[in-house]
């Protein structure tokens, strides 16, 4: 299940926090709901619902920290969508249903050509596109990227499941 996106008073995303911590912030009245979208807090006797986006009442000054790169985080950032053909798990390709295992991280500039593990050089690709591209640049393989890979504004590692609709507004996705 999804966690909660915490925004600064300026609406800048600060972090993805666990639901329990979100509840504690709400109880301490240091945050306000920034969306109508709610998520249920499991494990509680009464069914508590927490907004999926919270905003701090007072601005906090935080040093800028880049989200840490990992293969898993890239897949999450791209929501398991192939950057070249747009398929996702559940899409049909060549008469069969694609699964999560059919997707992997593609290096836009291939590793064999000194492409690095960075947010802007990596994206989710289906195995078919990944194989087709091989050790080439997209334009060399006659392939086009459907979007430009960007460095995310918050750490995706702590988020699990799909990114809630309400977050996208703030994450510029
Ligand atoms: Zn593809």
The end-to-end span amounts to 20 Å
Low-pLDDT sequence parts: none
Order of helices and strands: EEHEEEEHEEEEHH
Number of strands: 10
Q: How would you describe the shape?
A: elongated
Number of domains: 2
Strand line-up of the largest beta sheet: 2-1-6-3
Strand residue percentage: 15-25%
Bound molecules: zinc ion
Overall residue-averaged pLDDT value: 86
User: What is the helix fraction of residues, given as a range?
Assistant: 10-25%
Radius of gyration: 19 Å
- Structural class computed from helices and strand pairing: alpha+beta
Tally of helical segments? 4
Write up what this structure looks like.
The protein has 2 domains: 4-65 and 155-171, no CATH class; 71-133, DNA Binding (I), subunit A (Orthogonal Bundle), CATH 1.10.30.50. The strands form 4 sheets. The chain has a 4-stranded mixed beta sheet with strand order 2-1-6-3. It has a two-stranded antiparallel ribbon with strand order 4-5. A two-stranded antiparallel ribbon has the order 7-8. The protein has 173 residues and is of the alpha+beta class. A hairpin with a 6-residue loop joins β4 (38-41) and β5. The protein is 17% helix and 22% strand. It has helices spanning 19-27, 71-77, 127-133, 165-171; strands at 4-7, 13-17, 31-33, 38-41, 48-51, 53-56, 92-93, 96-97, 103-107, 122-126. It has 4 helices and 10 strands. The longest helix is centred in the first third of the chain and has 9 residues, at 19-27. The radius of gyration is 19 Å and the shape is elongated. The structure holds zinc ion. Residues 82, 84-85, 87, 125-126, 128-129 line the site of zinc ion.
